[in-house]
Amino acid sequence: MGSVYAIVPAAGGSTRMGGVNKQLIDLAGRLVVEYSLRVLLEVPVAGIVLVVPPGEEQKFLDQLKHLLKDQNIQIVAGGANRRDSVGQGLLALPAGVEMVIVHDGARPLARREHIQEAVQAAAEWGAATLAVPVKDTVKLAGSGGLVQETLPREELWQVQTPQVFKLPLLLEAHRKAAGDGFIGTDDASLVERLGKPVKLVRGDYSNIKITTPEDLIIAKALLGSGLNQL
């Protein structure tokens, strides 16, 4: 397997956190984004491109200087949406990269062994994502909140990150999405639009995304209990 790099999108607006940058919130003694960076370094990866809100590059440099001084982590400014931010990360990759891990900066509880499994799956299939089976019944609703259909739960998966791709495939997916004006909510959906397979790799329910203040409470509880390491 060739050189593996990681792109960590951390350029979201944090609107559901009251405007506070969720990536830089203290979570049990570390910044939220620091957990994501450290687990990727443990995989290991050859380097990381951290994509931050435009104008906040120096803030991230100052907050993460204890980590950046010893690691190959580059900070770049993001774009108007997630697709554009990951695209900025792709532009910053050095020559020779063959595989790319895309991992949300706001997912501090991903486990190294699951990431390694996703890398192995992407080496075989071209693209892979961590995911967990849906627990709740999911209904498709139309306008007015009226149920149209109950979806078959046994076929539904809740997708997480990291997502891992062979670099040429991810570049092609981003080029097509940009040309079509398609933004998407994750990078796997961009690859799906090419008609290419994306392999699901079972992750863990503790790999939550910090989106609201309630998520911080759950993440602290998981870290304190050690359940995310089981």
From TrEMBL:
Signal peptide: none annotated. Keywords: Isoprene biosynthesis, Nucleotidyltransferase, Transferase. GO terms for biological process: isopentenyl diphosphate biosynthetic process, methylerythritol 4-phosphate pathway. SUPFAM superfamilies: Nucleotide-diphospho-sugar transferases. It catalyses: 2-C-methyl-D-erythritol 4-phosphate + CTP + H(+) = 4-CDP-2-C-methyl-D-erythritol + diphosphate. The record marks R153, K209 as: Positions MEP for the nucleophilic attack. Pfam families: IspD. Transmembrane segments: none annotated. The keyword DNA damage does not apply. It comes from the Bacteria. CDD domains: CDP-ME_synthetase. GO terms for molecular function: 2-C-methyl-D-erythritol 4-phosphate cytidylyltransferase activity. Pathway: Isoprenoid biosynthesis; isopentenyl diphosphate biosynthesis via DXP pathway; isopentenyl diphosphate from 1-deoxy-D-xylulose 5-phosphate: step 2/6. InterPro entries: IspD, IspD/TarI, IspD/TarI_cytidylyltransf_bact, ISPD_synthase_CS, Nucleotide-diphossugar_trans. The record marks R16, K22 as: Transition state stabilizer. It is an enzyme of class 2 (transferase). Its EC number is 2.7.7.60. HAMAP family: IspD. NCBIfam families: ispD. Catalyzes the formation of 4-diphosphocytidyl-2-C-methyl-D-erythritol from CTP and 2-C-methyl-D-erythritol 4-phosphate (MEP). Belongs to the IspD/TarI cytidylyltransferase family. IspD subfamily. This is 2-C-methyl-D-erythritol 4-phosphate cytidylyltransferase. It comes from Desulfotruncus arcticus DSM 17038. The lineage of its organism: Bacteria, Bacillati, Bacillota, Clostridia, Eubacteriales. The gene is ispD.
